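RECORD TYPE: protein structure
NAME: Eukaryotic aspartyl protease
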Amino acid sequence: MKSGVFVAVAGGVVNSVTALSLPRTTTEGKGYIAMPVRQVRPDLGHLTKREAIEVVLKNREFYYSTDIIIGTPGQQVTVLLDTGSSELWVNPDCSTAPSAAQAKQCSAAGQYNPRNSRTPPTGPIGTRRLNYGDPSDPNTQTSAEIAYYSDSITMGGGVLSNQTFGIVTKSDGIATGIMGLAPDLKAGFEHGKPYSLILNSLAEQGVIGSRIFSLDLRHASADSGALIYGGVDRGKFIGELLRVPMVNGAKGEPRLAVELTGIGMNIANSAKTYALAPEDKNVMLDSGTTLTRLHPSIARPILADLKATTDSDGYWTAACSLRNSGSDSYVTFTFGRKTIRVPLSDFILDLGPRDGQCYIGLVTTNDQQILGDSMMRAGYFVFDWDNQVIHMAQASTCGKDEIVAVGKGSDAVPSGVVGLCDGPAAPDGDGNPTTSAVSPPASSTPYTPTVSPTGDTVTITKTVDNGPAPTPTYVTLSGCIALTLCPQSSSTNGASPPSSSPAGESQNGGSSPAPSKNTGVSAPTAASTGGPSSSTSSDSHSAASSLVDERFLGLLLGSLMTLAAAFWNI
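PREDICTED:
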């Protein structure tokens, strides 16, 4: 693992990243890694209203991306960040990009060539066809055929050895590679199946403590957000992180899905709630989808209250003035005791004023319901694969970061973790308003890897409403992976990643018979566990835990002494 800066913060040992003052740096800390993620917005100034919506909503030019480094020496590739699919793949066919602008972005996103890597890579070791899109909306449907390879992958300061990923052999309508962070539709959350996916490998190779990542897409007007593998940033949310159990998708498949228990809207202090039938409660959280997609029985009443009108493609517009109606105008999504408020400035998209009408980030679907970027920007989400729960809070920014590495176990993200930010948020379900009090971080424990490769071939179905983006830069801390979202206008590249990867035996999986084409790279050997031993990581976690206890007791003692002195003076 690449060395970094280890920072101790009062109240416990954490690796703190000043992402706001250093928006282009990548941070690597003990138990997590930080690297840039960008929100990509297209230039729509030269387009008509009709062309603008086709570019943004049909052609997926509004999305979140990050850069990864593959092989030795490193080859930088931009990938779309997607919590709605499971595969990592690169090298889309730029000639099939939906627009000229996307074709240009596709060419600038970088390509990986296994012949140029000295790691050495292995492959091809199997093939797969991936289908993306809402089956009920042909406008969203795209596909990619990939061949599997294995090579080192660097994300920020974290290096994965012998990581399996896909290289496109044929794609249609996709202009950027994809970093999938969801479970496999067949194997679910099983370790190492159908091969070791990115999140699994990060934990298995000791880069992070457990299979957890947190996501903060920030607000539509902000330049950046953050993805943290293996950690939680308490400087990015208001109130308490509440734990919500994951559920299977609408068709019974493993998804990053939860039960929606309530939905409402407030406009200028006029509140309204909408009835949910049992079939309306299953929703998937998908950062790879620009819009929120709900069943007509929910979406149409909301659209009617926004006085929306529809176009021939099924997209809806409302008065742009609603985006500026203030903090008392928002849509609410409730999950058990937690309610996330989505300001209308996020829920209604700013594609440039078109006769005073703006597009609403909501459409109807008769398939899997999706909470896309238009909703997710308002929340802070921690996805815990190991415990199959999602922790949620209202997103905010306090001007400082406090990233806490997460360990392993049923309470890896402790109940009652509270953010450092103050600000408006919906009260939790017990009726108590959220607060900004501080709770101590959890200690970390080592992770025990399991490997079980298979050779399944499946078809993935999910919605992707996006495309490629500008270049990021890096900062370094020591142990989980945090991704700081940078502005699209940024064109400055960050520091170069390491030129070598840690030693380790190859681990292969998820393959069907190898293609007959000879690529000149060696074929894989039998699957085996790889990556560094977890003993070092275990020792450092114990030391960190011990230091947390000492610091916490010290702070408690100091506080009591200060109070005693104050009363004595009185």
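COMMENT: The helical segments are 49-58, 100-108, 198-204, 296-305, 344-347, 373-376, 535-569.
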